[in-house]
Structures are given as C-alpha cells and as structure tokens.
Amino acid sequence: MAMAGSAIGLGNIWRFPYMAGEYGGAAFIVIYILCSFFLSLPIFFSEAVIGRRSRSNAIGAMKRLAPGSAWTVLGYLSVITPVIIVSYYSVVGGWSVDYLLKSFSLNFGQFVPTGPKVLLFNTVFLAVSAAIVALGVKGGIEKFSKFSIPLLFVLIVVILVYSVRMPGAGKGTEYLLRPDFSKVTPRTFAFALGQSFYSLSLGMGIIITYSSYVHKEENLMVSGVGTAVADLMFAILAGFAIMPAVFSAGIKPDAGPGLIFETLPFVFTRMGEASPLVGTAVAVMFFLTIIVAAMTSSISLLEVGVAYFVEEKKMKRPLACIVVFAIAWLLGLSSVFSQKAFGLTDAFSSNILLTVGALLVVLFVGWKMKKEDVRDEITDGGTRPGNGKLFPVVYFLIRYLAPVAVLVIFFSNFFL
Ligand code: PHE
C-alpha cells in the first residue's frame, strides 16, 4: 500500500489524462501499458533488489553492495533527488490545502501560485507529511497508506460516476479512448515511457528505501506488479473522472497545475450554480483526493532522506524528520516565490536526475551485481519457482532493454 501510495500522485491526475487524450487515446493507453510492464517494472524490480538485498537506505545500500566503489554516487544521487522533488511537490500540496478550504464557499478566485499565503499552506502540508514519517514506517507510513489508498479509489470512483453523467460528457470519454494511430510516433513512445517511469516513482531511491523494509518471505514480484496495476488503474479512473467534466463544461483540456487549479474550479463553480450542495461536495472530495494522493507521494520522498539520517548518521527518527523537513522547506522557498524556479526544479529533477538515477540502477543490477544474487532476490531465496521461470526474461529486460529505453527518454527530452 505504501508503494502504491508513492506511485499514485499528481502524475496520475494532471499528466496521464491529458497525455492519453493528446497522444492517441486508446492507442496511447496500450503503449503506456506495454511500457509499464516491459520497461518500468524491470527498473522497479532492480530498485527492489538493491533495497531488499542490502536492507539499507540508498546510500547505505551502495556502501554494502559495492564497498569503496564509485557506485556510492548512485546512493547520494538517490538521496538528494527526492529532497529536491519534495521541495516543489509540497508547493502543489499547499495549493490543494488552500483550494480545499475554498471549496466550502465555492469561491476560488484567481489562481495565485506564489507568495506568502502559498508559503503558509506549503509549510502546513510539508509539516503534516513529515509528522506522519516521524511516526515510523509501520505506525506512520503504512498505517496512513492502508487507510488512504482505498479511500482514494472510493473518492475517484464517486467523482467519476458524477462526471460521466454530466451533459455532453461523452466527448470527454471519446477524447480519452478514440484510438488515433496517426498520433503514434517515436515521440509517443518516449512520452509514454517517461510518464510511466515518473508515475511509478522510479529513479529516486524510493523503491530502494521501501524495499529495504520488505520481509524476505514477501513476494517481491507480486509487490511490483500490484503497484503497477494500482497505479495504472488510478490513472485511468482519474482520466474518466476529470475529462468528461472538463468537456461537459466546454473547457480545453490541459496538463499541469492549470488543470486542477484553474480549469476544474470553473467546473465546480458551474455545478454549484445548479446545486450549491453538489458543487461543494464534489469540489471537497476532489481536493481531498489531490491532497491525499500528493501526501502519500511526499511521505515516500521524505522517507528516503530520513532513512539515510537514521541508519547512517544514527539520528533519532523525529530529529531526522526535522532535518529533512528543514532542508526541503528551505529549498522550497524558491518554488514558493517564483514560478520559474518551480518549473525549472520540476524539469531538472524529472527529466535529468530521475533518468540518470534509473539508468545507474539498472546498470548496477544488470552488470555489477552477481546474477545469482539478483536471482535470489527475485525468487525470494529460491522459494518461488514461478518467479524463477520468469527470471531469465526479467534479467534480460534489466540488462539490455531497460538501459537502452532510459537512454532514449533521456535524449528525447532534449531532441524531440
Ligand atoms: N509517482 C508520483 C506521481 O505519479 C510522482 C512522484 C514523483 C512521486 C516523485 C514521488 C516522487 O505523481
């Protein structure tokens, strides 16, 4: 559940529906599913192997699995990236808290993305996320995820049922589904891959850290497939919850913060004109969904640094949480006060840091670790003959296909 919580986030809500619509509808969705299972999942398994084998945070993992080598760079990168990401991710969390409060009066006003008020809500959001992490992996992160992930699914289905019954909603479903093969170009593959990659929270030490807490007896492959399926289902449900309402209100679909904080409030206000109670209820549910989805992702981002300070620097967990909170909060000041800084931090971390991190992870597992050790993890110590049968395929994907695919996304960011 915690892994699913990390995966399910803003990426599913503000990027996936738009990408599906713009890049070929059902054709894009099929390509996305193939990318997720054949390319992103092997990367997920690679991180999981590193985490569970070493039973350590990302830096400790490299120290244990490849002592004294240059691979520690991968460890440091995996701890630094999530702190940078959470610094702007929590700004969006802050906007959502603000909009949740505004939902009660259905008076959203102009979207103001920067300023002192944003700082206030960002601080609240980040502090609550850090407090949950401070409660521990079992008592905080797992407990919160176990209750919030099912809740997210319930909320999104309720919104979906409401959305698809709005007049003219059919255009939205058509936008998502009508297969358009003319939109399928090499770029489509690069986008699908990049999106599935971001959506599964790969390349930033999260799966390494979470897997270090997974028992030896737990089926690692099932955790991976379960996370990918939950993430995919949520992305598709979010598409059908959002696009029909957007089209019914006659608004242009778009990606990014604008969709959530400019377009949809307009839809809620319209609903409110017809029935204030319904408008308020749907808006409250929607922003609650965004907050919870963003919070489980932020928690996973914080945990990477916290695990490092607790295990390597022997800090007490609450102190480690305060330290990571403080670093993220300070870094976040740039995104709180400048939209340009927000955009640059997002682009730099999602296009560059994540891809480099993921590339190093697959190279490490595919080429540096012993094949037998990798097999041992994938088959849970040889106790899963089914996983053993799949191992040659998984290993081939990790060793050859995934590195090439990651390089393709990396360069497509610059040249396509
Ligand atoms: N997987 C998250 C999403 O879909 C994105 C994310 C990025 C989560 C970075 C954690 C860290 O929104």
Task: Please render the helix and strand layout as text.
Elements lengths: L1 H6 L2 H13 L3 H29 L3 H8 L6 H32 L12 H19 L2 H28 L5 H8 L8 H14 L6 H6 L8 H29 L8 H18 L1 H37 L4 H21 L1 H30 L2 H8 L6 H31 L1
Quick summary of this structure?
This protein is mainly alpha-helical. The chain has 17 helices and no strands. The model has no long low-confidence stretch (mean pLDDT 93).
Structural class: mainly alpha
What's the number of domains?
A: 1
| CATH H-level superfamily | Amino acid/polyamine transporter I
| Helix/strand order | HHHHHHHHHHHHHHHHH
Mean pLDDT score, rounded? 93
Alpha carbon gyration radius? 21 Å
CATH top level assignment: Mainly Alpha
The low-confidence runs, each spanning 5 or more residues with pLDDT under 50, are none
Supply the CATH architecture: Up-down Bundle
What is the share of helical residues?
A: over 70%
Distinct ligands, ions and cofactors found in the model: phenylalanine
Could you tell me how far the N terminus lies from the C terminus, measured between alpha carbons in angstroms? 36 Å
Oligomer status: single chain
Q: How would you describe the shape?
A: globular
Hey, roughly how much beta strand do the residues contain?
A: under 5%
Helix segment count?
Answer: 17
Number of strands: 0
What name does the CATH topology carry? Amino acid/polyamine transporter I
* Major sheet details: none
